[in-house]
Amino acid sequence: MKITGISLGFLLALFSVWHLAQGQSIAPSQNVSPDFKGRLLAVSDADMIAGAYANGELNKVAGIEDELLLFDGLDDASNAKKGLHVSNSVISWPAILEWNPTNQFAYVAETRAVHTGNAQKMGNVFTDFPIGKKITVVDYTNAKSPKIVQEKEVGENIQGVSINASGTLMVSGSTAIGKELVVMGLKKGRIENVRYFTHESISTKDTGNGGIRTIEFHPTKNIIAANLNNTHLIFFKITENKGTITLSQLGDTMEVAKRWSVGNWHPSGKYFILSDLRWGNGLGQITHGKGKLISVGFDEGGNHKIIDKEKVGLSPEGFDISPDGNYAVTANMRRTWAPKKGFWFVPARKESSLSLVKIDADTGTLTKVGKDYGFKGALPEDAVFDLENNTIAVAVYHDRKEEFPKEGWIDFWEVQDDQLIKTDKRLKVARGVHNLLLIK
């Protein structure tokens, strides 16, 4: 049989070679004790397993619900605080958690609402889950007994949350047309005075990518960096005057990526670094190449520029910058969303990986150090450094081999001499853990 002049056998052979090239060696666990400094906030989406992205099979387990959990140290038996059922969704970029140190409040954006009913299959999880509308505010003043103090509806498919340095403003993205950029006043940690903004470049036709997808406040200024349509980057300055809030765009809208997810400000505030997954549509989900970290030099006068691009692993959805600004680590999902059965043709589906990147604080340039570090587990969407820059926590959605998993977990890695060392420490959490946040 011939396909456009090329034999089917040749194509299959070529595919097999490419498939093998997508393999990832597994980093061995070592008997090293991690010393994670700081508290750790984790959120789990229990409504779907990883494979549901491809086949819609949710495989829900009765009694296991979405959960928000705070860890204080690494002993999960004694230091895990009371978990709360807080609606959240993995159908989001890992930017739905925020913390207000002034009030000891946590904030969780609800991109998609909880799945109700007994149905175990959806036609398309991207469109069939109920629309999420609220941000849940949790009071951790008494960390042993946290409580939900507010559930505020602010938009549709809430895309993330970020709080300014003074703890007085919070921003979020929404897909509600004409209300895509949400600016909220905070009074004693609670949400009030919700205001909406839009932008002429926001796509209202591409419902899967259009809008403000993620958004981050500058470390010290009332300036935000926003993901526009998953392809562009835009900066705004927020001005408050006698209860009136205005937004001023800083510089031109920048096309920065093929499909980017989250961005993080360098602690210096001079650079905004973002993760480009390089995804395409259709077959582009299994033929895309390695992702990139992209460093953008920020200029308050508007003269921003792309400084550097560095290849990392496949599908680096979430990443973090160390508090000292010297490293970045990417959590590479690869294609572990592929279901265990029936998707043998999807390469890079069996292992995940981490990439370690050095950041030059003087220039903003990026340098990947070493090879990718492989490990087992499905859909690791996020990773965070500890306060001392030496330990990394990695969210693992669940065991890929289990059809009805009940647990996910958090792995811990140590940074030593520009290398990553996997420890054998693991904190078990509710299945579907997908977003982590370091709490100082």
Describe the structure.
- The structure is a single chain.
- The protein is mainly beta.
- The protein has a single domain, classed as Methylamine Dehydrogenase, Chain H (7 Propeller), CATH 2.130.10.10.
- Helix content is 6%, strand content 42%.
- The chain has four helices and 32 strands.
- The chain has helices at residues 8-21, 52-55, 125-128, 284-287, and strands spanning 2-3, 6-7, 29-30, 39-44, 67-72, 97-100, 105-109, 134-139, 147-153, 161-163, 169-173, 181-187, 190-197, 212-217, 223-228, 232-241, 244-249, 254-255, 260-265, 271-276, 292-297, 305-311, 316-321, 327-332, 352-359, 366-368, 373-375, 382-385, 391-396, 407-416, 419-430, 433-439.
- The strands form eight sheets. It has a five-stranded mixed sheet, with no helix packed on it. Strands 14, 15, 16, 17 and 18 form a five-stranded antiparallel sheet that branches.
- It is globular and about 55 Å long.
- It starts with a strand and ends with a strand.
- Mean pLDDT is 91; it is low at 1-17.
Please name the defining characteristics of this protein.
Methylamine Dehydrogenase, Chain H; 5-stranded mixed β-sheet; mainly beta; 5-stranded antiparallel β-sheet; globular; 32 strands; 4 helices
